[in-house]
Amino acid sequence: MRTIPVKTTSANYPVFIGRNLLAQIPRKLGLHKSARNAFILTSTAIWALWGKKFLASFPKDQQPTVLFLPAGERYKRLNQIERLASELATAGADRSSLLIAFGGGIIGDLAGFLAAIYMRGIDYLQVPTTLLAQVDSSVGGKTGVNLASGKNLIGSFHHPRAVFADIDVLQTLPDRELRAGLFESVKAGIIRDTALFRFMEQNSVAILARDPTALERVIVASIRMKANIVAIDERESSLRMILNFGHTLGHAIEAATGYNRLLHGEAIAWGMLAALQIALARSTVAPDQAQRIERTILDYGPLPAFRTTPAKLLDAAGRDKKNRAGTRRFILPKDIGNAIVVEDVTEAELRSAIDWTLTRARRGFTER
Ligand SMILES: NC(=O)c1ccc[n+]([C@@H]2O[C@H](COP(=O)([O-])OP(=O)(O)OC[C@H]3O[C@@H](n4cnc5c(N)ncnc54)[C@H](O)[C@@H]3O)[C@@H](O)[C@H]2O)c1
Description:
By secondary structure, this protein is of the alpha/beta class. The chain is built from 14 helices and eleven strands. The structure holds nicotinamide-adenine-dinucleotide. Nicotinamide-adenine-dinucleotide (NAD) binds next to helix 2, helix 4, helix 5, strand 8 and helix 6. The site of nicotinamide-adenine-dinucleotide has 31 residues, from helix 2, helix 4, helix 5, strand 8 and helix 6.
């Protein structure tokens, strides 16, 4: 088992990465004697796959209470927070209760926000079950829910007490979900970790075959990169912004396609390719580096097709919460392992990147 410490000004906590971690969680937290005060938030699908194994590690006569969130981005909403808070209250949850987020990024984000506001804040754990949640969303304390007008527009910073990334749980993850998570790790390499990028560039076959050693290396490096950034800039006032590489158009694509056509990681991959076009046009990145970036993203593809209009994407990108006072903020790759934040992307540049993207999105993007 590997442990990566996350150290920020408001919280310090460990991220545990390894195999068979589910069985170890209660003992590590002192819940092996009584878990009466523990509440697990999960989905019926994840629970059907892993619930029995997880519950077996808690004391038989004092099991945690299990709450469910329906699957899908459209349930990452405030009305679910209210329903679940009521269920917590009815089940007797108090300020000393522990909420355990057992699922992908949607469950993690929503459970974190629920924990942030239930009785003005209770402890929670992240037990991410998708690769995307392990390498990205479970670390760093960003929690929240969506509004009809945009993703993650309501939320707070609330760090978990610990994160347990059990690699075994990924065995049941559908291939498409695995690839969606790997796009986030490629992103980590592009913006901050040349060695991770090179490893992913050279080992896509082993990684996609879920070779545990290769997968662990990717997960550990991605989490370490995120932990480093969050330690330097917890509240995203400067460096943490680079984690948003691919997000401006990625979130816009998700919104413009109704949150049901692409997986989050796939939308981010399209967003990264679009941002790469802006970087290329500005000569921020050298053509050979851009080519390696594009190839490596596509190695973890395919990127599914989608249709929308330039106007819808422009509108959604304009509502991005990273924009400030009329500027368009973009993260652009500079070299592999290095990204910059720019605030002066023009509408013409954005339109051109959107056109490039929509042309390829009609048929999906697989070619290398
Ligand atoms: N807080 C952050 O910093 C941050 C960062 C990145 C993404 N996010 C958020 O994360 C969300 C996306 O998360 P996601 O990609 O994990 O999607 P998700 O939570 O929808 O999970 C994907 C699917 O995989 C299934 N699943 C989960 N674990 C499984 C397993 N082990 N075996 C089989 N099936 C399994 C789920 O039932 C679900 O259908 C988005 O809402 C995004 O905004 C947050």
